[in-house]
Write a structure and sequence with these properties.
By secondary structure, this protein is α/β, with parallel strands linked by helices. Helices cover 34% and strands 20% of the residues. The chain is built from eight helices and seven strands. The protein has helices spanning 2-12, 37-40, 54-72, 141-149, 164-177, 201-205, 215-228, 242-250; strands at 18-23, 28-33, 77-82, 119-124, 153-159, 186-195, 232-240. The chain has a seven-stranded parallel beta sheet, sandwiched between helices. The longest helix has 19 residues, at 54-72. The model is unreliable at 245-251 (pLDDT under 50).
Length: 251
Amino acid sequence: MVSDTVELLKNQIPLEQETLVLPEDAANGLVLVDIINGFCTVGAGNLAPREPNRQISGMINESARLARLFCEKNLPIMVFLDTHHPNKPEEPYPPHCLAGTDESNLVPALQWLEDEANVTIRRKDCFDGYLGSVEEDGSNVFVDWVKKNKIKTLLVVGICTDICVLDFVCSTMSAKNRGFLKPLEDVVVYSHACATFDVPLEVARNTKGGLAHPQEFMHHVGLYMAKERGAKIANQVCFAAAEKLESKASV
């Protein structure tokens, strides 16, 4: 039944995806959103998966692969880590990823990023990494990172597709359109390196305050809404030398 509904949804709001070819000599940046234990590691917390999940595992593997490529090429990476204070709840969700707990730390497959010189780590206390980058003096760590590295293409991956990833993309697109993020030109969400959580309707009905959240359905909706905001959606990402791109363009 759920799979039939997902197929109906995809037929009614089809999502065109593309191959993203990143020139090796261009200013590309990678943003990893909340790939932390509290959202990805089985049994790690209130919002962690209760059992192994293929979509989440695939997201981690693809994100780690891309992060390795960016580090090999010494390209800038920003990592957002959802980190909350106990006295500041984030409705409608139960306490999660509290500061000082392992829930708010990177999953084991990505912990090596903490030692990489090209990586900027930002702990945020809200859904939206853009807003979560605002300092008390009004400056914005993410905005400064884009400008400092002269990023033209921003690749976004992580969890949850329809919540933290989408909120960050929406704010970033609005800021770009207002001219706050020059020289940024393109924001690209890589679908295979994004994931969301799964709460079937029958589970939500038996959980106080629970909201149904079918995984495949909401993943598709999150990607579709990101595209509605002006982001590009890619189902394949690769690097290519500038001369190869020029030869393809001339064919």
